[in-house]
Structures are given as structure tokens and as C-alpha cells.
Amino acid sequence: MITERCLLTTMVGLSVMAAVPCAAQEYKIGVSAAITGPVASTYAPTYEGLKVYIDRLNERGGVNGHPVQVVYLNNQGAPPRAVTDSKRLVDEEKVIALINISTSATYAPMVADAKRSNTPLVFLGSAVCPPEVYPPKPEPLLFCSSFNMVGEDGKAIVHFFKELSGGTKQKLGLLAMDIPISRQGVDMIEKLARQAGFEIAGNIAVPPTAADFTPFATRFKDAGATWIAHWAPFNFGVALFGSLTRLGWTGNYLATASPTAETDTIKFAQGNFYVMPSYTFSVEGLPVFKEMGDAAKKYGATFPVDSLSLGWVGGMILEDALKRCGWPCSAEKLRTSLEGVRVDTQGIYGGPVDWSPGNHVRSAAYYKVYRWDAAQKRVVKVKDWLRIPIQ
Amino acid sequence: MQLAVNVLVLTALYALMAEGFVLIYRASRVFSLAHGDLMMLGGYVFFTCLVATGGNLWVSVPIALAAGFLIGVAVYLAGIRPLAGYPVASIVLVTVAIGILIRSVATLVWSGQVRYPAHALPFKDTPHQLGNAVFSTLDLASLAAALVFFVFLVALLQRTALGVRMRAAAENPRLAANSGINIHRVIALSWGLACFGATLAALFYTTRVNLEPDSWLVGLRAFVPALIGGMNSPLGVLPGALIVALVEVLAAQYLDPVMVNSAPFLVLLLALWVRPWGLFGTREEVVRV
Lengths: 391, 289
Prior knowledge:
The structure holds two protein chains of two kinds.
Chain A: H1 4-23, E1 27-33, H2 40-59, E2 68-74, H3 79-92, E3 97-101, H4 107-117, E4 121-123, E5 142-144, H5 150-165, E6 171-177, H6 180-195, E7 199-206, H7 214-222, E8 227-230, H8 234-246, E9 252-256, H9 261-268, E10 273-276, H10 287-298, H11 309-325, H12 331-338, E11 342-343, E12 353-354, E13 364-373, E14 378-389
Parallel strand pairs in A: 1-2, 1-3, 3-4, 4-5, 6-7, 6-8, 8-9, 9-10
Antiparallel strand pairs in A: 10-13, 11-12, 13-14
Helix pairs in contact in A: 2-11, 3-4, 5-6, 7-8, 11-12
Chain B: H1 2-28, H2 35-52, H3 57-80, H4 88-110, H5 117-120, E1 127-130, E2 133-136, H6 137-159, H7 161-171, H8 173-178, H9 183-208, H10 216-221, H11 223-229, H12 237-254, H13 259-274
Antiparallel strand pairs in B: 1-2
Helix pairs in contact in B: 1-6, 1-9, 1-11, 1-12, 2-3, 2-4, 2-9, 3-9, 6-7, 6-9, 7-9, 11-12, 11-13, 12-13
């Protein structure tokens, strides 16, 4: 016979059983990243940096007492895969935020699903921030902490051209990869450089599958380029610089950086190869790199520590947003929290990642310049932070 | 003069890559879509040896080339031979699968990180002046390597009993088999030689550009010179590679460099319209409408 006491005990027991999974409930985030595939070298380090940060965060108790469950999907940089990824993340996994770490070609399908489901979409270490995140009226659901920005990068490159050339007359060569975003970036640099009085020795877009860069290097050399810059994947510029060196070219090269730029610059060991990252290289020995190094070792990162910075910053942003969101945290609540993100990147960036309702990209971009110093046999800082307000 | 040097160096690279397509096609009538991946794998073996030995080329190059040869033989024995007698289309699809498998394994083992074997070389690839042209040590080495490879290949095919067996198996496998030739051994050898050439190409491509799992695309592009030269003509790849290299270098210098990608395919179309079996190939029996 069911007594009151028996019934009460059963109900309490059931309540406890129901409460246990509630207490263990997690913040569920979905990532679609180019972990493998043709462009993985640019994006996989950022994915690893984020993963290492989140693993460490969860081991320390998560956020607001709840673990952060991140569903990582590999889109290989291909738009069709991004389509299936974002549908799965939104419709099946019911994530409260989407994260893109991939090529600009994967943006559109993810943006469409973000809007359809009213889920915030954060570009953490994607190729370039999409125009919709810029002030004064950013798209409410889109946010970006990526390191490459077409207009700001162009301004920085031309600024450093002027400073590094010491006011002497220079002929600039500009290299793009033959993809729309890279061509757009290089065209912007050309326009700004012409306005600044530089002569352009060539604006060349090279196909992604070029078997040899020597013909393009020959063209730059024949045109008398004294400085060359690229706004393209870093390894692309390295390949051109290698061909220029083999041709005996003695000018200077300014490269925009990718996550692996520091390691590659060290291996390159060429004094006339300058790199312009929007983040600090680990050679500066900031304490945060020690933290990253320890975490990378513990959680089995395959990329060098210096290439994990951007993903690490992405983890900081996510942690900050989830803290603000509290518990429980819905997609809508998280979207509002993202608009209040203010992350001190501990020196990785030149300033904070500070999003607001009117700015989903940050208030300023910062750039440094490094190069290999043959005498010291290490990469050294040549120019400290240049601040370019984002308008 | 500089353009001539650029054309010659690119010709050497394309010829080494393209020869594998021809050797495999001649031996097994299969268009191997895994050839670019096998080249990439050879590049990784070379890079790994180079790093492990502290840049010792005397050890790294022979190991990489031997590994390339053995990988080619293994791919045939494990992946292609069991399909003997099946439609060619099935075997071509198997080569696609093998390519995807190699790419996945390369990403798992070496990660997606871009590698620069040039940084591990024991010397700097310094430029040398010749008249008004400049060429580097690696440029010279790639020309010499291509020359030696093709001389060796011609000698093997024309002057040795093994070469005669290979040609016989290529021209009429059934007759060759009935004559007592172990055609599977001969075909395996052809796959080995093809991958040996691809690895040789990888040594020069990866030290001049870079190495990543995506490097297979460059190897696959070499089917253009192979088709232009003729899929059953081992020496046809030389003029085929020369034509493609010439078109690419001239497009980069005088046209929009973007044409570098499309110009060789335009030439391929023209060449195939004129001679569908390739400039130096021989007409084959038409088995389809």
C-alpha cells in the first residue's frame, strides 16, 4: 500500500534525480571551423587556441558554475559544409551561439541560419570581419574579433611603408591571392598608397594553385619594386618572398600576419622580411604566453604556442560574455551580453575587445611590426603599437 | 633570358610530376587521381627525414625517394591490383578514395600547418648570375634531376629486358601475360617509378614553395602536360611540360597573372581538338561512342 511517506520519499527521490542533470547543464556553443582542408593552416591554430582555452576553463569549473560545451564541426573552408554545420548546430544541437573560424566564403550560410534562428554569430579568428559588424549600425546578431580588417590593415601598411622607408622614394609592389577578398584588400592598399604619394610597381593577383612563384617575382623585380607587401594568406607571401630572394632581389617585404607568422618568420631568418601582426608575438615574453604554453602542453595542441593567440582571445571573449549572461543563458540573452563584452587581452592585442550596441568589432585596431634580427638571431620588434580607430 | 630560365625550371617541375600520370596510365590504363596526393606524401616523408637528420640531404633524399617508390608499389598492390578485371571507372574512383585517405592521414600526422622544407636545408638557396638571368642552386638541381630521371627512364625502357617487358605489358597486357611476363610485377614497378618521380618533384616544389596537405592540388595540375604530350608517351610529357610552362610564364609576365590558371587549360583544349590522343601519343582503340 502506498503510504504518504512512501509517496513523499519517491517524489523527493525523483526531484533529486531531475535536479542532478540540471546542475550539470552546460552552456552549449557551436563552432564551424576550417580544421582541415586547403585553408586549415590559417584557421586550425585559432580553433586549437580556442579549444585549449575552453578545456582549461572547464577544468577550472566552467563559467558561473556550469561547464561550457563546445560542439566543434569541421567545415574545411567549404560553404556547403558550413551550411550543414550551422543547420545542425542551430536545429539539432540547439546552441546558444554560433562561432565561425573559417573563410569568408562560409559566412553567408552561417549568417542566414543565425538570422533564421535568432542566434548570435561570432567571427572569432575568421579571415576578415564582415562589413555588417562595423559601426555605426552593426547587424544585431553578428560580432567579430578577427585580426584582419580591409580598411584598417591598408592604413597600417601604408603608415609603416612611410615610417620604414624613412621618407625616401619607393616603388611598391602589391601581392594578392586571386580570391575576391584578397583582391579587394590589395586594391584598397593601392588606393591608399597612391594617395600617400607612393609609386606602384605592380598589383598582382596570383592563383591559389600556382606551382611556381618565380614568374610573378620576376615581374615585380623587372618593375623595380623596392618594397613589396601582400594582403593574402601568409604562406602565399612567404612563397613569393622565397622566389624574390632566389632572384637576388634586395628590397624589403612587409607581410600581413597569420596565426603562424611568428614561427615562420623565425625559420625564414631574413632581415628584409617584416611582419605586421595585429597581435603580440610571443618573443616579447608576456605572462599570458606562459599560461598558453602550459595549457597547450596539457591539452595537446599540435600547433606552436605562438600561433594560438587569436583562439585564446576568442576563449576570453566567450568566457566574458557567458559570465555576463549568467544562468540560465538563452541565445537572446547572450546576444545582449555580447554587446557588453569588454576583454583585456593581457597584451595580446594593443587594446581591449570592447563591443557595444553600436560597434560589434572593437573601437580600434592595433598593429606592430617585427623582423628577423641576424645579429641577435631572433625576431625583434621594429615598430610598437599603431592605433587605428575603427569608424 | 630570365624568362627562359623560369620556363626551363617550371618545365622540369611539371615534367617530373606529369611523368607519373603517363607511367601509370601506360601500365594499367588508369588515370590516377591520387597522383597529387602521392606527391604530397613524398614531400612529407622528405620533410620528416630532413628535420630528423638535421638537414642531411645525403640521407633524406635517398630515403624519401625509396619511400616514394615503395609507397607507389604498395598502393598498386593493396589498392589497385585487387580490382584487376573490374571497369576502369571503378579503379579511377578507388584512386580518388586513396587520395582522400592520404590527405586525411597527412593532416592527422603532420597537422594542417604549412611547412617550409627550405628552412631545414643545410644551405641557403643563393642566386647565381648568368648573363642577365638569375638562377638558384635549387633551380639548377631541379633541371639536373629531371634530366637524370628522364635519361634513366629512356635507358630503362629502351635498353633493358625489364623495359621491354614494361613496354610489352603496356601495349598488350594479355599477350604479355601469355608470354610469361608477370604483368602485375611490371605494373607495380610502373606505379613505383611514377611515385618516385612524384617524390622527386616534391623535393623541389616543397623547397621552393611550401608543404601542406593541400599541396596535392599542384601535383594534380600536372595532368595538363601529360594530356598535351600524350598519355601513352613517356617522353611526350617533356614537350607537354614545356608548352604549359611557357604559357604560364608568358601569361604571368605579359598578361593578367590570373591567366596563369586558365591559359594551360586553353592550350589543352586546343591541343586535344587537334590531336585528341595528345601531341606525341598514339591513337587508341575507341571503346565508347
